[in-house]
Amino acid sequence: MSDSNTANVQKITGSPRPAPATVLSAKPVVLSAPGRGEDLQVRVCAPATGGDLPVIVFSHGFGWSMNGYAPLADFWAAQGFVVVQPTHLDSRTLGIPADDPRTPRIWRFRIEDLKRALDGLDVLEAAVPGLDGRVDRSRIAVAGHSWGAQTASALLGARVLDSDGVAGEDMSDPRVGAGVLLAMAGLGDALTPFASEHFPFMRPSFDHMTTPALIVAGDNDQSHLTARGPDWFTDPYTHSPGAKSLLTLFGAEHSLGGIPGYEVAETTDESPARVALIQHLTSAFLRSALFPEDTAWKAAATALEEDPAALGELHSK
Fold first, then answer.
1. What is the spatial distance between Cα 177 and Cα 273, in angstroms, rounded to a whole number?
2. Do residues 279 and 208 lie in contact, with contact meaning Cβ atoms separated by under 8 Å?
3. Helices 147-156 and 106-119, interaxial angle, to 10°?
4. 77-103 pLDDT, tens per residue?
5. What secondary structure letter does DSSP report for 161?
């Protein structure tokens, strides 16, 4: 990281950049998944030391797997979180064809994957050497990018509208206390014909998404799935009740600077500084959301607001 980027990190955290923490991980940890057609493969990573560790269950974007999103997963683990990354059925690593009979329901399988990971925390905890007994089951968050953000939002209370505009099943999870939704699709009122035909589940309702969440959007994220502009990705903030924050990143496209991985081909807006900002703000948000006495989020929000060269802007309600 350059000197200028290091300075930006110090502004957001309010302290010098700490020495890297040792992170332990295990993969694949396999959870039995009757009716899914494939057992659920999960990667678990956690700091080598410390106790009462909160949990983040992360849902990857289309085609990715438990092996992706290292810039986030590794950072969060180094910051004291247990990070759980299931591999969904749409992952390229599984090679399931488009005409597979499960395809129309993959969006539901994805949500079930996150809940299955929570149900299997005993198995996941035991899979990482030295982690047993160090996990705080009362402090759980979900996060996701792109399709993964929509998946995670269901556990926060978002629902899918049917063809008549009626909100479907409530799939929220009371175990989840906070969320981070990165580049999440907005309302389904302006989908392109392609999206309407192939992704009928992309009709979310945020009316019941009451769990606290940080929504992250890029102001240069133009999706081919909607006729609207980048403001589409701010809908989860605009149309949801309760405590929400919106981080809008200047110049960011759908990868938000490169969160899916280091030097991946589909990152068209590579920005290590932007990724560093996301790392620190998401960590601070989740830390304060899960530990109400923690002041990291307040300090980070103030630092961003006072930064004359800020990479984004923050709104909260």
1. 28
2. no
3. 60
4. 999 999 999 999 999 999 999 999 999
5. B
